[in-house]
Design brief:
Blueprint lengths: L1 E5 L6 H12 L2 E4 H10 L3 H11 L6 H13 L7 E4 L5 H13 L6 E6 L2 H10 E4 L5 E3 L18 E2 L6 H15 L1 H7 L4 E5 L4 H15 L1
Parallel strand pairs: 1-3, 1-4, 2-3, 4-8
Antiparallel strand pairs: 5-6, 5-7
Helix pairs in contact: 1-9, 2-3, 4-5, 6-7
This protein binds adenosine-5'-diphosphate (ADP) (2 copies) and zinc ion (ZN).
One adenosine-5'-diphosphate (ADP) binds next to helix 1, helix 2 and helix 3.
C-alpha cells in the first residue's frame, strides 16, 4: 500500500499518519520530520533546510526530491509507505510519479484532510512538539499529562519556530499557491479522497480507516 497524506499545515496530517502507519504497517515518511531530524544532528542538509523552514518557505524541489528518492530507494525499495508532507509542488508530484514508474508501481490513495483557515491557525499556534521523538501535542486539544513534557519519551516540548505567527501566514499562502493545485492533479488520476479534518482526533482517524478499508 502506497499512501499520501495531504492537507494544509496544521490540518492533522502528522497526527493521523502516526496512527495509520501503525495500523497498516507502513513506513512513515515525513519530509518535515526528516529535515528537523537532520537539523537536530547539525548536518549540513538540515542547517540549510532550516533557513527556509524557519520563515515558512519551502525547501527547494531539488533537495526535497533527492532526500525522498534516497529514503525510498537507497537501501531497499520501500513497498508499503505513507508519505506525509511530500509532494508539496507539482514538480515534486511529477518526480514521485517517475520514481514509482521505474519500479512499475503507483500511489494507491491520496488522503486530503480538509480544514478551514480559522481552525488551521488555532491548531498551529497551539501545537507543541517533542524535541526528542517528534510527537505532537496541542495546548488545548491534546495537552500532555505533565506540562511541557512528552508523554511517550519524557522529552522537553517546544514550539516550532515556524509555528510562530509570521511564518504561519507564509505557510498558508504558500500552501494555497504551490500545494493546493495537487488536489486537481490527484483528482484527475482518480485517487483523491477527502476527509473532514475538523472533527475529533478519533472521528478523523475512523473516517480515514473506513475509506482505506473500503478501497484497499
Ligand atoms: P506541517 O506539518 O506544519 O505541514 P511539515 O512538518 O510537513 O509541516 O513541514 C515543515 C516545513 O518543512 C515546511 O513548512 C517546509 O518548509 C519544509 N518542507 C517539508 N516538506 C517539504 C516539501 N515536500 N517541499 C518543500 N519543503 C518542505
Ligand atoms: P500537520 O502535520 O498537518 O501539520 P499535526 O498533526 O501536527 O498537523 O496537527 C496540528 C496540531 O493540531 C497539533 O497540535 C495537533 O495536536 C492538533 N490536532 C490534530 N488533529 C486534531 C483534531 N482532530 N482536533 C483537534 N486538534 C487536532
Ligand atoms: Zn517524545
Amino acid at each position: 500500500m502506497k499512501l499520501l497524506m495531504m492537507g494544509p499545515p496544521g490540518a492533522g496530517k502528522g497526527t493521523q499518519a502516526k496512527k495509520i502507519v501503525d495500523e497498516y504497517q507502513l513506513a512513515n515518511i515525513s519530509t518535515g520530520e526528516m529535515f528537523r531530524d537532520s537539523y537536530r544532528k547539525k548536518e549540513s542538509l538540515g542547517l540549510l533546510a532550516m533557513e527556509f523552514i524557519r520563515d515558512g518557505h519551502l525547501v527547494s524541489d531539488e533537495i526535497t526530491i533527492e532526500i525522498v528518492r534516497r529514503r525510498l530507494f537507497a537501501n531497499h525499495v520501500e513497498k508499503n509507505f505513507l508519505l506525509d508532507g511530500f509532494p508539496r509542488t507539482i514538480a515534486q508530484a511529477e518526480a514521485l510519479e517517475e520514481m514509482l514508474d521505474v519500479t512499475g508501481s503507483k500511489l494507491d490513495a491520496v488522503i486530503q484532510i480538509v480544514v478551514s483557515d480559522a481552525v488551521i491557525l488555532n491548531r498551529m499556534v497551539g501545537r507543541r512538539s517533542c524535541s526528542i521523538c517528534g510527537a505532537t501535542y496541542h495546548i488545548d486539544y491534546k495537552p500532555p499529562h505533565q506540562d511541557g513534557v512528552c508523554d511517550s519519551c519524557g522529552g522537553v516540548l517546544y514550539q516550532r519556530e515556524d509555528d510562530k505567527h509570521e511564518s504561519v501566514k507564509n505557510r498558508l499562502d504558500i500552501y494555497k499557491e504551490k500545494t493546493k493545485p495537487l488536489i486537481d492533479y490527484y483528482e484527475s488520476r482518480g485517487i483523491l479522497f477527502e476527509v473532514n479534518g475538523e472533527k475529533s482526533f478519533d472521528a478523523v482517524y475512523q473516517a480515514i480507516k473506513a475509506l482505506l478499508d473500503e478501497r484497499l
